[in-house]
Amino acid sequence: MSLAVGFRQKAAVLWHTQRIKRVVREIGGLGPHTLVSVAEITCDDPACPGPVTQITILGLDLRRNVLVVHRPAAEVAAANLQMFSR
What we know:
It is a single chain. By secondary structure, the protein is α+β, with helices and mostly antiparallel strands. It has one domain. It contains one helix and three strands. The chain has one helix spanning about 5-30; strands at about 35-40, 50-60, 65-70. The chain has a three-stranded antiparallel beta sheet with strand order 1-2-3, with helices on one face. A hairpin with a 5-residue loop joins strand 2 and strand 3. The N and C termini lie far apart (about 45 Å).
């Protein structure tokens, strides 16, 4: 793998991570003081076909909400994030 391909893959993951954060903030009506974290991680379940996307929301009340979407970040759509709607 060339250096350019590595940069392109990392840039694509970063772009999708920021897209998911924006969608979560819009759907949930979250303000700027709420921490939204998105990470693409490997799935521990042998039946899981690939990486999963973990979304964590931490509010000022220090309550943590975690959603795991069993899809790579590039395949996560707004319909997968309706759990965060208020």
